C-alpha cells in the first residue's frame, strides 16, 4: 500500500505578517498532483491542520477546498487533530465526511477504532491518535499519571489490543501528534510541556508497522518506522535550513517498509544574516539572499539609524530585525542573555526562586507548585483559543 504522510499544514498562519494562504493553496495543489501521479493509496495528515482553534475565514475556505479536492481523487484520507486545532470544531461532520473517504479522527475515545483499508496483501488498520492533552484525557484513557508518556502509552495499549483481535497478517499504521524523544524542535511549534516533560520515548509506538508523526516542523526519522513529515512550509526563521517535504511510503506484505522524501514547493527561500549593518550592506557574498525572506541580526555596539529601511534597500524582503550588540564578556546584560538561552519556563522560574532567596533552591513541593502554575496558564491559553475569545475577534473583523 502506497502512503503519503504529511502534517502541520497550519492553515491560516502568516510568516512575519506575510499572508501564506496562496502558498498553502499551492501546497494543496502540489499534494493532489503527487497523489495522482504517484498513485497514492491513502493520504495521512498527522495534526495541526489549522493554526488556531478558531481559524480565520480564509483558512476555513481553504480547508473546505482541500477536502473537496482530496475526496474528488477517490483516495482515502486519514486526518487527526493537533494541539493547534480545536478537536471539536475539526471533528464537526466527521460522520458525514467519512462517507466521502475523509476520515477525521479527533475524539480520544476512538483511538482503538481504526480505519481499515485493503490492498492485494490484505488489511491495513490506520489508528488515529489526536493530540492528547494529559490533564484532559488521563481519566478517559485510564492512564496512571497525567503525562504525555502515560496517556500515549494508554492509547497505544488500546491500539495493540484491537490489533491483536484482528486476523493474522493485518498491518498497522498509527497517526500521532506528539514530541518524541530524538526529534529536533524549531521556534514555530507551540510548547506542549506538561509537568516539565513534553517528550515521549519512541518505544511507546512498538508493535505497529509505522508511526506517522506530527508536531515537529522538520522532516526527520526517529527510527525507520517512526517518522515526522514536518510542515510543508517554513513558519519561523529557525526553519531556514529545513528541506520541506512529505514521506512517500510503500507498506508491503509482512510490514516491509520503504520510504522516500517528496519535496514541497518553496514560495521564497529564507536567509538568516548576521553582522554589523554596514558590513551586511556591502558584503558581496550576501547577494544570493537579496530575493529571500531575511532575518537580519545586527551586532553593532549601538543601534544604527533606520536599520530596517537601510536593509530593505538591499534586501527588499527583509522581515525580521534582531539586535544583538557586541558586548564585553563581563557585561551583565550579556551574561543575563546567556543564562536565559535555551532554558525552559520551569527552569527560569526555579532560578528566580533561588535568586530572591539568596541561593536557596526550590524544594520538591515548591517545584510541584511552580509546575502546576505553569500548566494552568498554558491550559488556560488553550481554552481561550478554543472558546474563540481571542481568535473570534479577528475572524469577525475579517468578515466585516
Automatic annotation (TrEMBL):
InterPro entries: Calcineurin-like_PHP (IPR004843), DNA_Repair-Maintenance_Comp (IPR050535), Metallo-depent_PP-like (IPR029052), Mre11_N (IPR041796), SbcD (IPR004593), SbcD_C (IPR026843)
Ranges where the record places region Disordered: 380-400
Domain of life: Bacteria
Gene3D superfamilies: 3.60.21.10
Keyword list, A-Z: DNA recombination, DNA replication, Endonuclease, Exonuclease, Hydrolase, Nuclease
Subunit structure: Heterodimer of SbcC and SbcD.
Protein's name according to its UniProt entry: Nuclease SbcCD subunit D
UniProt source species: Streptosporangium nondiastaticum
Protein's gene: sbcD
Amino acid at each position: 500500500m502506497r502512503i503519503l504522510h504529511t502534517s502541520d499544514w497550519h492553515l491560516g498562519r502568516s510568516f512575519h505578517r506575510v499572508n501564506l494562504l496562496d502558498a498553502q493553496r499551492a501546497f494543496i495543489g502540489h499534494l493532489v498532483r503527487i497523489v495522482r501521479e504517484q498513485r497514492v493509496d491513502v493520504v495521512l495528515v498527522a495534526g495541526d491542520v489549522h493554526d488556531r482553534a478558531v481559524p480565520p475565514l480564509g483558512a476555513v475556505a481553504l480547508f473546505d477546498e482541500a477536502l473537496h479536492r482530496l475526496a474528488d481523487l477517490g483516495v482515502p484520507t486519514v486526518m487527526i487533530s493537533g494541539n493547534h486545532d480545536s478537536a471539536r470544531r475539526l471533528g464537526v461532520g466527521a460522520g458525514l465526511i467519512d462517507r466521502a473517504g475523509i476520515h477525521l479522527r479527533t475524539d480520544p475515545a476512538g483511538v482503538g477504532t481504526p480505519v481499515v483499508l485493503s490492498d492485494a496483501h490484505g488489511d491495513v488498520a490506520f489508528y488515529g491518535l489526536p493530540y492528547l492533552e494529559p490533564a484532559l484525557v488521563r481519566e478517559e484513557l485510564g492512564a496512571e499519571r497525567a503525562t504525555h508518556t502515560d496517556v500515549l502509552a494508554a492509547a497505544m495499549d488500546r491500539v495493540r489490543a484491537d490489533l491483536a483481535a484482528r486476523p493474522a497478517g493485518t498491518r498497522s499504521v498509527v497517526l500521532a501528534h506528539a514530541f518524541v524523544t530524538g526529534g529536533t524542535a524549531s521556534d514555530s511549534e507551540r510548547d506542549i510541556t506538561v509537568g516539565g516533560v513534553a517528550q515521549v520515548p519512541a518505544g511507546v509506538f512498538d508493535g505497529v508497522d509505522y508511526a506517522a508523526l506530527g508536531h515537529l516542523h522538520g522532516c526527520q526519522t526517529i527510527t525507520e518506522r517512526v517518522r515526522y513529515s514536518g510542515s510543508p512550509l517554513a513558519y519561523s526563521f529557525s526553519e531556514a535550513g529545513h528541506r520541506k517535504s512529505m514521506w512517500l511510503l510503500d507498506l508491503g506484505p509482512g510490514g516491509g517498509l520503504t520510504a522516500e522524501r517528496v519535496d514541497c514547493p518553496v514560495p521564497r527561500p529564507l536567509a538568516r544574516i548576521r553582522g554589523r549593518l554596514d558590513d551586511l550592506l556591502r558584503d558581496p557574498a550576501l547577494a544570493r539572499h537579496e530575493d529571500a525572506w531575511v532575518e537580519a541580526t545586527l551586532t553593532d555596539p549601538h543601534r544604527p539609524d533606520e536599520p530596517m529601511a537601510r536593509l530593505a534597500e538591499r534586501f527588499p524582503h527583509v522581515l525580521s530585525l534582531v539586535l544583538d550588540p557586541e558586548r564585553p564578556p563581563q557585561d551583565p546584560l550579556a551574561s543575563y542573555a546567556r543564562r536565559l538561552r535555551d532554558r525552559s519556563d520551569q527552569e527560569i522560574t526555579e532560578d528566580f526562586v533561588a535568586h530572591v532567596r539568596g541561593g536557596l533552591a526550590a524544594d520538591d513541593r515548591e517545584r510541584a507548585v511552580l509546575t502546576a502554575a505553569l500548566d494552568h496558564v498554558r491550559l488556560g491559553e488553550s481554552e481561550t483559543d478554543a472558546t474563540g475569545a481571542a481568535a473570534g475577534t479577528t475572524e469577525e473583523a475579517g468578515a466585516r
